[in-house]
Each structure stands twice: as C-alpha cells, then as structure tokens.
Amino acid sequence: MVLPVVLIKLIDLVWYQLLANSCHRAARKVRNYGFLFGNSSPPNKPSQQQPPFSFPSVTKCVLEGRDCSTIACDIFGALLKSQSVFPYFMLVAFEGGSIIRAFLLLLSCPILLVLDYELKLRVMIFITFCGLRRKDMESVGRAVLPKFYLDNLNLQAYEVLASTGSKYVFTSVPRVMVEGFLKEYLEVDDVIGTELQTVGHYFTGFLSKSGFFVKHRALKEHFGDKKPDIGLGTSSLHDHLFISLCKEAYVVNEEDSKSGSNSVMPRQKYPKPVIFHDGRLAFLPTPSATLAMFMWLPLGIILAIFRISVGIFLPYKIALFLVTLTGLNLSAKGCNNSTSSKPDQEKRGVLYVCTHRTLLDPVFLSTSLCKPLTAVTYSLSKMSEIIAPIKTVRLTRDRKQDGETMQKMLSEGDLVVCPEGTTCREPYLLRFSSLFAELADEIVPVAINTNVTMFYGTTASGLKCLDPIFFLMNPRPRYYVEVLGKLPKDLTCAGGKSSNEVANYIQRKLADALGFECTTLTRKDKYLMLAGNEGIVQDNKRKKP
Q1: What is the per-residue pLDDT across 284-335, written as a single tens digit (0 to 9) for each?
Q2: Under DSSP, is residue 264 helix (H, G, I), strand (E, B) or coil?
Q3: How many angstroms separate the Cα of 166 from the Cα of each of 29, 66, 170, 228, 230?
Q4: What pTM does this model have?
Q5: Cβ atoms of residues 364 and 481 within 8 Å
Q6: Nearest-10 Cα torsion for 112, 115, 121, 124
Q7: Looking at residue 522, what DSSP letter applies?
Q8: CA distance 498 to 185
Q9: How far apart are CA 257 and CA 343, in angstroms?
Q10: Three-class DSSP category at 85
Q11: SS (H, E, C) 144-196
C-alpha cells in the first residue's frame, strides 16, 4: 500500500505544485519584470518596494548582560555566512545517498532557478531524501555536515548567539539536517524546522502532515504571547516578519558576511574543535564546484590509475618524475641522514615513526628515501595490500604477537610504523601507542602532512579500498614529508626512558614540526564517533558447510 500512495503524491507534486504553481508564479514575475523595461514601476505600485521594517545590523548588538536573554534565529543567512542551502543538500545526496543522486540534484539546478523558495526546497528535499535511509542521514549529520557548517559560521552572529542564555533556531530546511550540529556544537536549546515523512527506516522525500515550515508562524506558536528578547535574521522580507516578533531585532547583511574580516570564524574560536570528520568531498559543493567535479571525474579516474601503475612498476626516481608531471607535489626534507649507525654485524633496520594522514604515507616515505621499506598496518583492505608498491605486514592487536612480528621485520630491514593507529585529517595528532618504543633504539620521527582540494583519501564509513584512488584522483594533491633526524639514545628506552615517555616525546616533536596539536584520543574514539564501530576490517571468508 505504501508504493501507490507515494506515486500518487509524486504525481500531485510534479503536476500541481511544480508545474501549475510555478508557471503561474513565473508568469507573474515576467509580467512584473516587463514593466521595468518600459516604466519605472508597475501600475499601482511604488517605484521601489522597501521592507516594512528597518532593523540595525548585527554589529550593533550589545553582548554584555545577555545571560538571561532568549534569542530566536535561523541558521542559513544568519548563523551561516551564506544563505544558499544547495551545498548542504548536495552533501547529504553525495555522502548519504550516491553519486547518481548527487548528479540528479545537480541536473535540477536550471529548474531551481525559476522556482520560488518553497518549491525550490520541496524539489531539493524530494531528490535528496526520497528513499534515503534514516541511518545514512544521521551519519552525515554527525560526521560530515558539522565541518562545513563550522567553516561557514558567521563570527558576529555566533557571538550574539553565544552571549544569550536560551537559544532557539527556526529554519525552513529539514530539521534532521541541522539539529545535531546546532545542539552539539552551538548548544542550542531547541531546533524547530521542516519535518519529513518517513516509512519505516526510509524517507519518502515528502513533507510530513505539518507541511512547509513558515518561520514567523512557528515563532508565534512556540512562544505565544511571550516575545523572545533577540531576533536575528537576514534583510529579506520573510525574515523581517520573523524577527519583528522579537523585542530586539538585528539583521545579518550578506555583503558584510562576504567582505568583512570580522565575520570570518578563526579555527581557535570554534565553539568545539572538529578533530574527526568523514565524507569524500573536500570542498563546499556549490552548483559550479559540483559541476566542475563531475566534469573532472573521468579524467581523475584515468589519472589515478596512471599514478598507481607508475608507482608499482617503475623505479623510484622515474616514478617520482612522472607523477610530478601529472600535478602531484611531493615535498621532502631531511631524507639523507637516517641510516643505521650500528656496526654491520649488529645492524638492524631503522624504525621510522610517522604521523598518519592517508594509507599512502609509507609509500611516499619510501619514494622520498628512494629505498624499499616495510609497513605494518592494522586494518588494511585486501585491495590496498594488492596495489601497495611496498611490503605490508598486518598486525593482530595482540601486543606480544605484534611485538614479535615487528622485531622480525626490523631484523630484515627498515620498518615504517604509524603509532596513531588511524588517520586524522585535521591538524591534530592522536595518542601514540608506545609499543614501537620498546622494539628499537634506532628511531627516526617523520612528519607527514597532505593537502587535497577535491577528494579526501580517507574514510571511516565508506570503502577503504578506494582511499588511495580518491586521493590520487585529486588534480593537484600535495604530500609533505620531513625526516626529523634520529632520536638521541638518551631519549630512548635504552637511555632509561619508559616507552610512554618516548612515545609522548615523539608525538610532541612531530606536532611542533607540523604546527599541530597533541590529543589523547585514539583510533577507537574516532570510529565510534564517525562510524559506530571500532574500525576493524573483517575478512569475509566463506564458511564451509
């Protein structure tokens, strides 16, 4: 019974709400705009329509003594610098849905241009949410969207919000897209927004029985006769109606948000640091940026295959020369003084201790040093092991067994270990495991960092076998490798230091070299936060009958 109901509603949406209403409204716009070419104003209308209210800028709001005040505002255009909601629908469509869903949303852009705000939202909601699992939306809202919201946060508007005691956000976009971020990062008391219809564990793409959300009506219903102390909105007429219901009203001008340096939110002022985030897209997917991504995809796939093939089959120097021609930038420093200082009869391999940015860290270190290395890993997919141009050894998370394995590898040659145990995209270092410090005296810290412009080469909830491919699909990916020099013997376990002291010292040294911050977070913290699991890749073996 569910499918016929959905089909009937879809026909009604397309025929009546989209075609009939939009054509009527488009005709009215054309009629009104036609007068602008012949006359200064339409008949019976003033030459310039001014909003019925005039409110001061948000910069005029006094922040002191607001602890007991109540604020009502929207997130788009007020708390965020941009009023455009399209990039955030695209993030849900791409990261929570599929590349096909994202492409359909991009194709709808010409239609969206001629629709009014309500119909535009209805179309984007239907394309983005029809058939989407609630679980996937929750994952995107928790692991993907907060990073982009914080990057686009308006500092002036946030300072007004943070100065108040009670915070309420009213928004026309689906509540599920913003509620998690607003409550966790901005400590908003309540979020009132458009509600979506669901069937079981899936969204239908339609609005719930409450219909389209109108902010000024919702404000009246929520507060009744009691008015909020502060209203924050844009200079649009709808927002003027909304904030006029508050005791004090301030507007956030889009021009000030884009041009004013005071509106930019510096990282150190984030209400809560974003240490972990997920998703493949490394840019805000505006319509033009999304179009550029889809045009790049075919070439990017070919480029990634070429870069992988060159790294596997050609010598280091030739491979480095060729991938540099394709746009990959490898910056290497201090790669000459890392050989073992022990006599030949006692010589063991050097243990390289690296920061962990992508699965390709050991590969680029090996290329920078122009010598083969062995990398130890925890959860590495079979595909990554197959295409790896260097030897990889899988660890078991059993401390004694892993120690024996690494000792054996060191007796055979140089070894690379990433003691964080997982990757981190932001300028933070996770807690270092101390196991490596117990195994070797010849320890060389290596600071590694990456920079991408289109795709992230890591994931917590997606297919990890595609991580190297996504990284190498970037037009101009950058790898920075700095070998810091061998650790003095008196700072190792052989010099009387404990393994934890050695690990913490190297973590601080690498953080200083990269300008990062040290944390005590672990691999388990990351995966529980982003994916709801401990981040262990299980081997899918067939069970014998």
Answers
A1: 999 999 999 999 999 999 999 999 999 888 898 899 999 999 999 999 998 7
A2: strand
A3: 40, 10, 13, 9, 10
A4: 0.86
A5: yes
A6: -30
A7: -
A8: 38
A9: 64
A10: coil
A11: CHHHHHHHCEEHHHHHHHHHCCEEEEEEEEEHHHHHHHHHHHCCCCEEEEECE
Print burial letters for 84-95: b (CB count within 10 Å at least 16), e (below 16).
ebbbbbbbbbbb
Per-residue H/E/C for 187-248: CCCEEEEECEEEECCEEEEEECCCCCCCHHHHHHHHHCCCCCCEEEECCCHHHHHHHCCCCE
- Pair of tokens at residue 32: 């009104």
Residues 6+ apart with CB under 8 A from 235: 51, 251, 253, 254
Tokens for 478? 């950058």
Residue 357 phi/psi, 5-degree rounding, is -110, -40
For β-strands 202-207 and 196-199, DSSP reports them as antiparallel
CB count within 10 Å of CB 421 equals: 21
Per-residue pLDDT of 165-212, as tens digits, reads 999 999 999 999 999 999 999 999 999 999 999 999 999 999 998 788
Each residue of 11-33: b (16+ CB within 10 Å) or e?
eebeeeebeeebeeeeeeeeeee
Under 8 Å between Cβ of 91 and 283: no
Task: Tell me if residue 482 falls in helix, strand or coil.
Answer: strand
